[in-house]
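User: I'm curious what two different proteins look like when written out as structure tokens. Can you demonstrate?

Assistant: Sure. I'll show them one after the other, since each token string lines up with its own sequence. Here's the first protein:
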Amino acid sequence: MVDWGASKPLLTALALPPVPFLVLVLVGARLILPRRGWGYALLLLGVAGLWFSSCQKTALWLQQGAMRPPPALFGAEQQRLEEAGRAHQAQGRRASKGATTPPPAAIIVLGGGLERLAPEFGVSALSPSSERRLTYGVWLSRQTGLPLGFSGGVGWAQQGGQVGSSEAEVAARMAERLHGMRMTWVEGTSSDTRENAQRTVALLAPQGVREIVLVTDAAHMPRAQRAFIEATRKALVQHPEWPIIRVTPAPVAYWRPSERPLLDWLPSTDGVSNVRQVLREWLGWLAGA
């Protein structure tokens, strides 16, 4: 039986640029002699695809047109969370010794990748994307007074290799050592966004948490938010006694046009990376993953 989960990294890599456009170039080159018109057309299409799939302008267009991430958590929404956090802390001070009350909301950071061994540290470390999410989650937790959690195990692309710490365990260690903050929740068994949602909801709902403030990249947020909403609905069907959990997006890492717009039309490393990321999210959205 085919393990489709384990095959996801390979299938995704084959579906994303530059592979499809390289295939067009090769097919076009093969057709130049027998069918010159078709050959040159496919060559031109392949080269154009390689160019535009490497431009930041394409990533910006796809981010706003295909994924349409929600706005940053700021203003009234952040103020609401700050007031809820202050009220919870005041309630905790008034409570009798040993009594605990569930927090009104939990700030949950989703993992964005793990480096199994960072040579400069000699231990595992978060990817730049995951570290940025963690930094914002720590900042938001301090601003609002709400507890912090992290969801991330071992991704499909890393499974089968050397077994080590989960991404959540690495994040908890970095949060404590670098930011002086201890995680309240650590979910380290999930392999993808859908499992992030299912296992985080199963962890928080029995504790009476009624809101998840979800932290992840802006391009990833629409798919992640959908997965968490679906997970809360399924959890209520299976456990009617659990509270209804609200999912509030708190996206980070928006892409912005450069100060010199012409540069956005030129191939760049950011363009290549961002186009691949947003196309991967779009394919995941269409597949219901």
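Here's a second, unrelated protein for contrast:
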Amino acid sequence: MRLNKHISDTGACSRREADRLIGEGRVTVNGMRARVGAEVGEGDTVMIDGQALLQRTTAPGKRRHVYIALHKPVGITCTTEASVKGNIVDFVDHRERIFPIGRLDKDSEGLILLTSNGDIVNAILRAENKLEKEYLVTVNHAVSQEVLRGMSRGVPIHGQTTLPCRTSPLGKFGFRIILVQGLNRQIRLMAAHFKLRVKQLIRVRIGPVKLAHLKPGQWRNLTDAELRGLLPGQAEF
């Protein structure tokens, strides 16, 4: 198997990103610096920056469909349109045809789910499911308790008032917010309502799925427990 595909299959990063890391001399195979286009076999030890690659959370072929969690970097667009430079499908470069579940602004980073199973997208996104989405936000001015209370009660955007949500402070210039909605640029518009400009926005959780230690550009397969939390009652995945 090609080294870049092996790295991608473990969920460390896309094949394109793997080639970049190989070219920079950050990848070794059995202790030797790897070259772009190298092949690897069963039993070979592949390391990035001296760290052994994590293996798949499930064996290949166990599931009918692909379900992955990606740490989307800033600058990647959540679209399947091949004409859009920096689209998320080309970025992940998965061997299966996958697409994002929901969206995350181009200027934001963090957790987004992708799948090859179109039948479950609406089931996950339906508003009545009230799937929590958790974000860490940094803004340009100090955040008061009054502002946080105002956000939690609801803010007028897009001709409607946002649903009640949960907020808590994160230092002087940041806050944590947990939503069950997914309106376009919702958090940025909520902050703007209080004269705040978002400088950094990271989504760290979608329902039972956490960003945890994934670095920007890395992805992993969802576990069975995570899928059961996203799709209660589903017999197979």
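A detail about the second structure: The domain at 67-126+211-230 is CATH 3.30.70.580 (Alpha-Beta Plaits).
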